[in-house]
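REQUEST FORM: STRUCTURE PREDICTION
Request ID: SP-0412
Submitted by: Lab K.M.
Chain count: 1
Length (residues): 390
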Amino acid sequence: MTDAPIEHYVNKAEFNPESAVTLTPEQERYYMASQWRLMWWKLRRHRLAVISGIFLAAIYLSIVISEVLAPYNLHARNTRYLYSPPQSVHLFDDGKFVGPFVYGIKASLNLERLQWTYSEDTSDVQKIRYLCVGDDYKGASYLFWGLFPGSFHLFCPAKDGQLFLLGTDRLGRDVLSRIIYGARISLTIGLIGIAISFTMGLTIGGLAGYYGGFIDAVVQRIIEVIRSFPSLPLWMALSAILPVTWSPILVFAGITVILGMLDWPGLARAVRSKLLALREEDFCTAAELMGAKPSRIIGKHLLPSFMSHLIASATLSIPSMILGETALSFLGLGLRPPITSWGVLLNEAQNISVVALYPWLMYPVVPVICIVLAFQFFGDGLRDAADPYK
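STATUS: Completed
RESULT:
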């Protein structure tokens, strides 16, 4: 039995455009959308990433007005309330609605345990004030962003009252206010560090991936050497080199540069692998034949083609820098007072006996955990949205 040829049917009727398949407005909107818009649509479907992004945006906006959000200024001391425990906020007093308030604090010295003990004075009702005038931003370190003085706060304690929502430390300083101020340093160091790391990773990885050969081999050996060292001991060794006579600003700059310069190998390797594949594409060959310089080909044609992946990688790298600064400051090798960061605050909780007696000194670890988790969830959402066609 022989296979019969398959007949080919041709419609000889004249083409009628009205009979052609037409796209719905939704389909046309999808097919005409740019890659960035498709990424945004896919990211919006990742509920956890959207919530994390909103949380991160709110936290980073808060560091602009830290002086306003904190009820006390950074170095305000309440010497009568050393290691005072957190106060509870109440709404009702003796069955009557009063509004947000705290009870006054009674302080007494326990001679047997040689420590101050505190209790609520239910006869002293102290209403919390809002949009109020409180501690001045006086002195060089109290100025609003170091530019001008002020005394406006979002909320304040009652007149001649106390408001320690997260307790006080060994010098009677409000822990909540110091956490709010510490966010400015801890979050800023991550952004500056990733800017340094991003620049180095794109430059070195781009050169290795585009040229290949000897340059690629040298870059790969350098990356392998850097990544062979344990991260924390290497950070500790380099941080210990910083002179103790440096000012807090120089120490801040030094820690930022160290974190940025040690985080670029991972990004450089990702850029290198992408460029090795993309440099053989037709659009890259066409740019070379038209006389484009290597810097233009890398910057205008190759890097933008996978910029979404780079943004996701950068988002996932910021938490490691925040954790690095926190760990170094906690060990006493990073930032030092009078600079205040979350790591510096946790440095006061190194002694286990202090933590057992005053557990609220560990509260600065809570924002660190929340920020790291938010960046991880947001980075996962960006990574999924980076390829909107899947």
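NOTES: The chain has a mean pLDDT of 81.
Reviewed by: T.R.
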